[in-house]
Amino acid sequence: MLGQQFYHETMRNVIVAFGTLFNNIHLVRKNNSGVVIQTMKVPLAYGPKQKWLSRLDADASLDTKVAITLPRLGFEIQNLAYDPTRKLNRVQKFRKVKGSSSDSNKLDHQYMPVPYNLDIELYAMAKQSDDALQIVEQILPFFQPDYTLTINDMADMGIKRDVPIILNSVSYEDSYRGDYGDRRAIIYTLGFTSKFYLYGPVTSSKVIKTVQVDQYANLETEAPKREQRYTVTPNPVSADADDDFGFSETVSFFQDAKEFDSSSGTDKTTTND
């Protein structure tokens, strides 16, 4: 079981999809006459908010030219937990015939995925209250309390799945750093839970295109004689799993003591030691 290398990038895809939800938020600033004087896109980055607060502590005036601007959005993973309420039958499998013509006789199969919940926090940091409110107001109406994304979970198996992003909480923090006249940081923290599935390795096997059964009348004898052979093949034999095909059934009768040798594909006489 363990030791087989595989990586489907499932968690990475969920995190990227989550960030994509919030990477196109804009805010507008107006003067006292209601005329728009500035429009800006709110930058988004993955990382803890403590990093930005430490940056404010180190240089409250932000005179040093480094890569930080306010307002901004950031998000980070908080927790990963198994979800037993969405458990699937672990003995069932996904199956798919390989798409390429050279591998059309091979079948990929994979056991049912395992449900997990990924807790993510999104924070909006601004120095002006109106900027922070604009950001939050562009997010909250879309979560009631969830927003569903369709993610290409397993491209090799052709699996797409709806992943709900659930809004759990919203908290507010107004952090003053230093004296009254120094820089402030207004932070809205939004807690989300993403319900997704993790997939195991994909294994391949040959597609079964011939089924053959030999029937014997009396197995208690020393050299039992087979009575008949029942064979089933697809019609046409070259058909793929997605084609419209039927089956050809053949029944053969025997009166001998031979057995079918799968390694050579021929009938051989049984020898008893």
Quick structural summary:
Helix content is 11%, strand content 48%. By secondary structure, it is mainly beta. The protein has two domains: 161 residues, Myoviridae tail sheath stabiliser (STM4215-like, 2-Layer Sandwich), CATH 3.30.2000; 60 residues, no CATH class.
Report on this model:
By secondary structure, the protein is mainly β. The chain folds into two domains: 10-84 and 113-198, Myoviridae tail sheath stabiliser (STM4215-like); 210-269, no CATH class. It has helices at 10-21, 49-58, 129-137; strands spanning 26-30, 36-41, 44-46, 72-82, 93-97, 106-111, 114-126, 146-154, 159-176, 184-198, 203-206, 211-216, 226-235, 246-256, 258-261, 266-269. The strands form five sheets. The protein has a six-stranded mixed β-sheet. It is rod-shaped. It starts with 9 loop residues before the first helix and ends with a strand.
